[in-house]
Design a protein that fits this description.
The complex is a heterodimer of chains A (808) and B (344). Chain A has 808 residues and is of the alpha+beta class. Chain A is built from 20 helices and 42 strands. Chain A has a 7-stranded mixed β-sheet, sandwiched between helices. The model of chain A has no long low-confidence stretch (mean pLDDT 93). In chain B, a hairpin with a 2-residue loop joins strand 6 and strand 7. Chain B is 42% helix and 19% strand. In chain B, the strands form 2 sheets. Chain B has a 7-stranded mixed β-sheet, with helices on both faces. In chain B, strands 2-3 form a two-stranded antiparallel sheet. The longest helix of chain B is centred in the N-terminal third of the chain and has 39 residues. Chain B is of the alpha+beta class. Classes of the chains: A alpha+beta (808), B alpha+beta (344). The interface between A and B is large, with 97 and 88 residues.
Chain lengths: 808, 344
């Protein structure tokens, strides 16, 4: 809502206050003022001029040379290129030395040999938006229609010396979508009286009911419909003051009749519609729901197809307007209109909202209906508009309002219990103060001890319960005066849940292992939603009904494609070493069309590419490889202290390197995987060697953990034996280690692989693995013989089960 | 004999003086002090001496031996010391060479902000509650006093999957769910961090996905002044001890009265600057007293219980804290951006 400071003065005495004062006060009072616009936009030196003579430029077809009276002793010569210039016009002249928006300075100039001492301006050149300029002047200079004094300040004539407050209204304060509502608000804040417009309706002896009848078939959507007839009107341009006010409020002036309906809309917040009575098509107004598929051409020349959700005004046969949204083209007021049928109606917000949404049509009228208009003002606004139309068009109002009225409302009475107010707000307002706040708001009340029974006027339909009144008390009392206290109740212990604590730990362990945390979007493209999907079976894509783009249309089923995006983004910016992880949810359903919430699984996912260690003076560079990533995860698993060991099992997975991928198992169940991305996909994504892992965080964090149980430090020495084995190259280290552990029995406390060798000096198809075995008995010192016995058993089993021989 | 002993002493001491290492010194020790050495020989030959001379020469031989031993021992210490010093000198390194780097990742700045806010409210006795990103309409809107045709639904145009399921537009549904779990019995003290979604085109100040932290406190006799007190403590804990807060009336469908909460500008101390657009104040969160209908819908007796709720945008807090001008940085995850927030 745009509120002209000068216009506001019609209703309330604010001459001692600046627009900025009011803006600050309103903002602190709960209605945020985004901007205070200076309409002059830095313009100076523009005056009203009178074009005495206008002749074609001797050297240019499209230019005219004008002699213009600007109220100075001599006429000035101005060269003007506008096609609508002619002698006898009152125009806006930017004199030599004038400044136009954008600090554009007007200088004396010579145009094709002719001196030009200034510029004749269009409204756009004064900084007015083209969409607000009367149609006939959008392509040329502006010509005054009214009498204006030659040589006077053109800014004043155009009301551009005004300031406009731009209100950012919260949805509850639609009462301030009109000038009167704003006046009441300012009045409450400053304790000042509001003066309502004086409406004088002079009617002739005829009866409106002889002209028109009103039938409402959908009275729930339309509880009130009033029709007023104004005859003998002469449609033309509105007076300048009216045009100026509309433009300041962001509405383009059209004609006197239409401008009045818009003016009263802004003043009262009540949408009105003027029909051409003679083109209405009948003598009856019938309001009903549209039939499915029914069509109407609206004022903007668009054909609209309606459904039975939409309410229409008809002439008994066909729709002439979409109720509360937009009028029809056929019954539009035009230059030749002589009789006006003026509609003042109350339409239900939800009905209008539906139509406006379905048709993609939002108007000043529909916005106000949607938010609810003041039931008490419908008729007053109609009368105000009728009186203004009659006055500005020379028309006559036919006696009576033809109406159908099932509007029933009672003024809301809301209880305000002073004790409850003070308890809830934590402050101490006296009865006198509370009562005075109600009066300032224009609310009436009856006092009953410590309770006020407050009658709320219909313009403030947002006030329905005691808490609403508490807010009114609080904001007029001033939020700064509310004290600062701490809750009185029992204290509570704040703590993270076990899960939250562990998740935080996971995050910090991964970060200290050298990975950087990233956060990516939950929405993705259908293609990316398919890649690396957590479960490939029973997994339908979860798609938005109306996505803003295909890239953000589908819920992700893996974080990996999102981390690829992060990798690509960085590599494109020459960040080659990218080691990242994300903790986030994936979304899974087995339903083809969603009827219930999908499963949200929290995952921890990583992606690494580039060097792990850069080349340094002490050593060679080292690229990220499988074991770097595995090592990080092993470190993480160790931190989690799970009761069961994690197993890495060689696997083949889609889009993963067939020889460098492993499933990660816990209790024999898959909890995730790790590996190198398939070289074909790497190439497609423009990535070098890239490793990823994805783990089900919830399963890991909800798994049992080992409690810490202290073990006595060993009192007896351990014995360490190293062995180098030769095995078939296809044997995995895990297999060999498992045999060692099994064969070593109770005395074998630790097995560590410390070397792997393949190649030169090795028989073809063989490799060497070296292990360090630690034997210990916590009860006594082991003898050499005992260890040798156990160790011999290990070697024997190795030979039997994996064909391992001691390396010679 | 006397001369012989003196000559031996001078000869030995001269050799000690020129011994260059422990080995050379050892040779001197063996040569002069060993069992087959000349001094032992002198002592062995004492039998030929008179009774008067014998103790004198014996004493003298012992003195000479002691003198040589003392010199040898002293020289040995000196030589060992020198050897150690030489060794140390050889072992000296260039301490300005770079150390062996430890890989250090980083925690995302939004997570850091969430953790910090959590810390502040955990200290005030709040717990942390979480909920699903795909919500049912009831919890996202209706349970929060936003019935289907409520005009305020315009404020947060949403991503719907079906008529009943959507991406949550705020984390308030977690509050509604938490209240329901409490079955009408207070106190309820939670904060709810999480990802939320709105139909916005991504630009420097808008993101279709962002993070919020909302808070809820329901108990008997919770007052608006308590809201002010708790948020003031939070502001001081998060932004700094010298920061003030102010409340402005506002509107949210789920609270009444509702407020916007401003924090005094940390850049200019409230005098007015670029950051606070000359106002001295920065809007950081929305809050209010829980609407009685919301309490009732979640099973709380609104005549007995009252409460306050608040909500803040994590990106906004992070942008204010680090003076970041483009919200998209949080989601493009440029390593050069992330690396600036190292804190593990």
């Amino acid at each position: 809502m745009l509120v002209s400071y000068k216009w506001l003065q019609d209703y309330i005495d604010i001459e001692d206050l600046t627009a900025r004062d009011i803006a600050e006060k309103m903002t602190r009072g709960g209605i945020e003022i985004d901007f205070v616009h200076q309409l002059n936009q830095g313009v100076s030196g523009v005056v009203v001029g009178f074009v005495k003579e206008c002749q074609q430029h001797p050297n240019a077809d499209k230019l005219n040379v004008c002699q213009v009276d600007i109220g100075e002793e001599e006429l000035v010569q101005i060269v003007c290129g506008a096609s609508n210039i002619s002698s006898g016009q009152h125009v806006v002249v930017a004199k030599v030395g004038a400044v136009l928006p954008g600090n554009f300075k007007i200088k004396k100039a010579k145009l094709r040999g002719e001196v030009s001492q200034g510029m004749i301006c269009s409204l756009q050149e004064l900084g007015i938006e083209s969409k607000l300029v009367q149609r006939e002047f959008t392509e040329g200079i502006y010509v005054f229609n009214d009498k204006v004094e030659v040589g006077s300040d053109a800014l004043a004539a155009l009301n551009l010396d005004d300031e406009v407050l731009e209100l950012d209204l919260t949805p509850n304060r639609s009462d301030c979508l009109n000038m009167l509502g704003v006046a009441y608000e300012v009045g409450a804040l400053y304790e000042r009286e509001v003066t309502l417009p004086n409406i004088e309706v002079i009617t002739n002896a005829e009866e409106a009911s002889d002209y028109i009848s009103v039938t409402v078939e959908a009275s729930e959507d339309n509880p009130y419909y009033g029709a007023v007839i104004i005859k003998d009107v002469k449609v033309g341009t509105s007076p300048l003051w009216l045009q100026n006010r509309l433009m300041a409020a962001g509405i383009r002036p059209i004609s006197n009749v239409v401008d009045v309906t818009n003016y009263v809309l802004l003043e009262y917040g009540q949408p009105l519609h003027a029909f051409d009575y003679d083109r209405f098509g009948s003598k009856e107004v019938v309001v009903r729901r549209a039939q499915g598929g029914e069509k109407i051409v609206t004022l903007d020349e668009q054909e609209r197809t309606l459904t039975s959700d939409h309410l229409v005004i008809t002439n008994g046969n066909e729709p002439v307007a979409i109720a509360g949204v937009m009028g029809g083209a056929t019954s539009e007021v035009h230059d030749g209109t002589t009789t006006v049928l003026l509609e003042a109606a109350y339409f239900k917000g939800a009905t209008i909202r539906k139509a406006s949404r379905d048709l993609g049509l939002r108007s000043d009228a529909s916005t106000r209906y949607e938010k609810g208009v003041d039931q008490d003002r419908v008729l007053a606004a109609g009368r105000r508009a009728a009186a203004m139309i009659a006055e500005l068009t020379g028309g006559t109002i036919v006696s009576g309002v033809v109406e159908e009225d099932v509007l029933s409302y009672e003024m809301a009475t809301v209880r305000l219990d002073l004790e409850r107010v003070n308890n809830r707000l934590g402050m101490s307002v006296s009865m006198e103060e509370a009562a005075s706040f109600m009066s300032r708001l224009g609310f009436t009340y009856e006092q009953d001890g410590d309770v006020l029974h407050v009658t709320v006027p219909s313009r403030r339909s947002d006030i329905q319960i005691e808490e609403d009144l508490m807010e009114e008390v609080a904001r007029l009392y001033g939020y700064d005066h509310i004290p600062t206290t701490l809750p009185k109740g029992a204290t509570t212990q704040g703590a993270l849940s076990e899960y939250q604590k562990k998740r935080r730990h996971v995050r910090h362990v991964l970060a200290s292992s050298g990975l950087s945390e990233v956060i990516t979007y939950s929405l993705t493209s259908p293609e990316k939603a398919k890649g690396f999907a957590f479960e490939t079976t029973n997994n339908s894509p979860i798609r938005l009904a109306m996505p803003m783009s295909e890239d953000r249309s589908t819920m992700r089923t893996s974080l990996i494609p999102h981390l690829f995006d992060v990798l690509s983004y960085n590599i494109n910016r020459k960040n080659q070493e990218v080691h990242v992880f994300e903790i986030g949810s994936i979304f899974l359903t087995d339903e083809d069309s969603l009827t219930k919430q999908p499963t949200e699984k929290e995952m921890v996912t990583g992606a690494l590419t580039g060097l792990w260690h850069e080349h340094s003076w002490q050593g060679e560079k080292k690229s990220v490889d499988f074991y770097v990533v595995k090592g990080i995860l092993e470190g993480l698993f160790a931190e989690l202290g799970l009761t069961e060991p994690i197993v890495f099992e060689q696997a083949k997975l889609p889009d993963m390197h067939p020889g460098r991928t492993a499933l990660i198992l816990l209790d024999g169940k898959e909890v995730g995987f790790i590996g190198q991305v398939h070289p074909a996909l790497q190439k497609e994504l423009g990535l070098k060697e890239t490793y990823v892992y994805e783990l089900e965080l919830e399963v890991l964090l909800k798994h049992d953990t080992k409690p810490v149980v202290y073990q006595d430090l060993p009192r007896f020495p351990a014995m360490v034996r190293d062995i180098a084995l030769v095995v078939d190259a296809h044997r995995s280290a895990g297999e060999v280690e498992a045999v060692i552990r099994w064969a070593g029995g109770a005395l074998l406390k630790k097995v560590r692989l410390f070397d792997l060798y393949e190649g030169e000096h090795m028989e073809e198809g063989k490799k060497s693995l070296a292990f360090s075995l630690t034997y210990l008995d916590s009860e006594r010192t082991l003898t050499d013989e005992e260890v040798t016995k156990a160790h011999t058993q290990v070697l024997k089993m190795l030979e039997e089960h994996v064909g391992a021989a001691l390396r010679g | 004999m006397r001369d012989r002993l003196e000559a031996l002493r001078d000869e030995a001491l001269a050799k000690v003086a020129v011994a260059e290492d422990v080995r050379a010194l050892q040779e001197v020790r063996v040569a002069y002090l060993g069992k087959k050495g000349p001094i032992t020989e002198v002592l062995r030959g004492m039998g030929k001496l008179s009774a008067e001379e014998r103790p004198i020469i014996g004493q003298m031989a012992n003195d000479v031996r002691d003198a040589i031993k003392e010199q040898v021992d002293q020289k040995e210490v000196e030589l060992e010391q020198a050897a150690i010093e030489l060794q140390l000198a050889r072992e000296s390194i260039d301490v300005t060479l770079p150390g062996r780097p430890i890989q250090g990742g980083s925690i995302h700045p939004l997570t850091q902000v969430v953790e910090e806010v959590e810390k502040a409210f955990l200290g005030l006795g709040f717990s942390v509650a979480e909920g699903p990103e795909v919500e049912v309409d009831y919890y996202n809107f209706e349970a929060l006093n936003l019935p289907k045709d409520h005009p305020a639904r315009d404020m947060q145009d949403s991503f719907y999957f079906t008529d009943e399921l959507l991406l949550r537009t705020h984390t308030s549904p977690v509050q509604a769910r938490t209240m329901e779990l409490h079955k009408g019995k207070g106190p309820v003290k939670v904060i709810c961090p999480g990802k939320v979604f709105r139909r916005d085109d991504d630009d420097a100040t808008h993101s279709h996905q962002f993070m919020q932290i909302e808070g809820l406190f329901v108990d008997e006799n919770v007052r608006m002044s308590d809201l002010k007190g708790v948020l003031e403590q939070f502001a001081k804990s998060f932004f700094g001890e010298d920061r003030e807060i102010r409340l402005r009336p506002s509107f949210f469908p789920f609270t009444e009265p509702s407020v916007e909460v401003d924090v005094s500008c940390g850049m200019c101390g409230g005098k007015g600057c670029r950051i606070c657009k000359q106002s001295g104040w920065i809007e950081v969160l929305g809050a209010g007293m829980v609407h009685p209908r919301v309490l009732e819908m979640s099973g709380f007796d609104s005549t007995k219980y009252s409460g306050f709720a608040f909500g803040m945008g994590v990106e906004r807090l992070a942008m204010l804290k680090y003076d970041i001008d483009d919200i998209r940085h949080f989601y493009t995850n440029d390593m050069r951006f992330l690396a600036q927030f190292k804190r593990v």
